[in-house]
Write a structure and sequence with these properties.
The protein is an alpha+beta fold and 113 residues long. It contains two helices and five strands; from the N terminus they run αβββαββ. The protein has one domain: HIT family, subunit A. 21% of the residues lie in helices and 22% in strands. A hairpin with a 3-residue loop joins strand 1 and strand 2. The chain is globular, with a radius of gyration of 13 Å. Bound molecules: guanosine-5'-monophosphate. The site of guanosine-5'-monophosphate has 12 residues, from loops. Guanosine-5'-monophosphate (5GP) binds next to loops.
């Protein structure tokens, strides 16, 4: 896949982000257009396009992403939070670099609007 996505540019330091967390595997930063009081994006440093492009070799990275998303969500939204991975066109994915939305800071409701 092309790494020339907006998230690729953020990972390469070509455009800034408001960083929340970083380690060797992932980066988390505030969404530029938040839809909830807490809206953090968590992305793997490895350029995987989406959950629809996952291979067996990605299992450790995915586990790490979910582990850290859970820790961050609990830290930022102790009353609860939602983790979403929009996938593909019908899933509403607009940036073709796998990412988790961590959403909270208010009651999120269901089904999502
Ligand atoms: P998607 O629609 O692909 O699930 O989510 C992409 C998200 O990336 C959107 O919520 C959008 O607001 C966010 N986004 C797009 N461009 C930027 C950017 O340059 N910086 C940050 N921090 N977020 C971005």
């Amino acid at each position: 896949m092309s790494t020339d996505t907006i998230f690729g540019k953020i990972l390469r330091g070509e455009i800034p982000c408001n960083k929340v967390y970083e380690d060797d595997v992932c980066l988390a930063f505030h969404d530029v257009a938040p839809v909830a009081p807490v809206h953090v994006l968590m992305i793997p440093k490895e350029p995987v396009q989406s959950l629809g492009h996952i291979a067996a070799g990605h299992a450790t990275m995915l586990g790490h992403l979910l582990h850290k998303a859970g820790e961050l969500g609990q830290q930022l939204c102790p009353d609860g939070f939602r983790v979403v991975a929009n996938t593909g066109e019908d899933g509403g994915q607009t940036v073709n670099h796998l990412h988790l939305h961590i959403l909270g800071g208010r009651h999120m409701g269901w089904p999502p609007g």
